[in-house]
Every structure is written in structure tokens, then in C-alpha cells.
Amino acid sequence: MNEEDIKKKLTSEEYTVLRQKGTEAPFSGKYVNSKEKGVYVCKVCGQKLFSSDTKFDSGTGWPSFYDAVPGSVEFVHDDTHGMRRTEVVCSKCKSHLGHVFDDGFGTPTNKRDCMNSVCLDLLPESEENKNANN
Questions:
Q1: What total of structural domains would you count in the chain?
Q2: 27 lies in which domain range?
Q3: How many secondary structure helices (H) and strands (E) does the chain include?
Q4: Does residue 114 have an active-site annotation?
Q5: Which of 42, 90, 93, 114 is labelled catalytic?
Q6: What is the CATH number for 45?
Q7: Which of 44, 47, 81, 87 gets the most CB atoms within 10 Å of its CB?
């Protein structure tokens, strides 16, 4: 999929966040308080990124996960906005997803992958199982 196809597929907000490294407003995303079981996939390419089993309430206003599906994300040094952070990108399409922080205290990894809801789609558990059997 080329960049023009990606732009046509996404809303303006989704494109800004995923391809131009923007951030959605805190507490505005549809997955912030979601408790639904399943797998979160990349909005651009559909790659599986996070299991709902690793999602936790960080109180930060963005969906937070303590671990990603192995090999699904890459970490990139980010010095923008006068901060030292680590950006999280989809390993398949290189879309921006959010940032990872070392303040996931009480989680098995002590990490908080702070993601933007607009970057994700949730494949419900029942649908994931159905797709796995095809």
C-alpha cells in the first residue's frame, strides 16, 4: 500500500497520528476504558499488536499495554518536543502508534506502551478465534 492509498483509507485525525506522528487528545479515544477481550491490530496494515490481556488502566488518558505481540512493534529514539522518549511504531508498516515509558509499575514488565486509540482496531476474541481457524 503506498502513501496515497493509506491517506485515502484513514480519516484526517488517523492520518495525522499514524503517519505524521501526532497524538490524540487524552481521554478522547474509544479504547481508553475498553475492557473487551481480543487483539488490537494496526489501523493501517492490520498487523496484530497487543492482546487485551496486556491492557491496563494507567490513568493517563490513552490505552496502555505492558507488552506487545512479539516482533510486532519497533522502538525509535524520539527527541521531539524537548523530551527524550521512545516512540513505538508498527514493525510492518512503520506507522506511529505512541510511546513507551518505564512507569508501568505493578505490571510484569514495568513498561507502559501508551498508544493512541485512532491507531488501533480491536479484533474481538470471538472473531480472532474464527479467523485463526480459516
A1: 1
A2: 3-132
A3: 3, 9
A4: yes
A5: 114
A6: 2.170.150.20
A7: 44
